[in-house]
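Input.
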Amino acid sequence: MALSKVNFNSMNVTPAASKAIKFNSSNNGLETGDLGGSLVLISTQTASSSATISFTSGIDSTYKEYIFKLINIHPQTDTEHIAFNGSIDGGSNYNVTKTSTFFTAYNLESDAEAALGYTASRDLAQSTAVQKLVDIDSANDMAASGYLHLFNPSSTTFVKHFIARFSSSTNEVCKDTYIAGYFNNTNDIDAIQFSMTSGNIDAGTIKMYGVK
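Output.
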């Protein structure tokens, strides 16, 4: 096997924080560059009896993937779902057509019952309604946390896929929910809104990241 050589003059590897050594664009030298897959925090919003939490800026062609991390979401109303929807007009309307799947694993605190199954009542089939993510108990010590991935939202060629996973506590039950689907629209998705299916988001933090 032939040994590949790199000329010393084609090495641009001055150390820099949060950078890695990689081949340059011509594949004939080395340079420092951004770490692949690193997260860039774009925006943070904190709920306080909020009817909705909307991200209307920062979702563009800069990144091919966006991650929303929802931390300790607490509802005003008992056993309602945190949910989301998308917009193609900067947040004027949140009504993009979606098709999705939804399944849940759960276990009772008493260990008396546990199951894993598809939840047909929470999926969507060519619907503009909000996509439910997980239901949450409104007791003071109860909350839900999880993440939503949105892929290539600025594409005007393909539908826009999303996946999500959440952990929640409701009525002495631990739930683990899995959601996948797509916005069935070739317009760019430029805003995302979170809400409860009834009542306000009493408390919680939502962070939006871009993935390099």
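Residues 106 and 175 are 4 Å apart (CA to CA).
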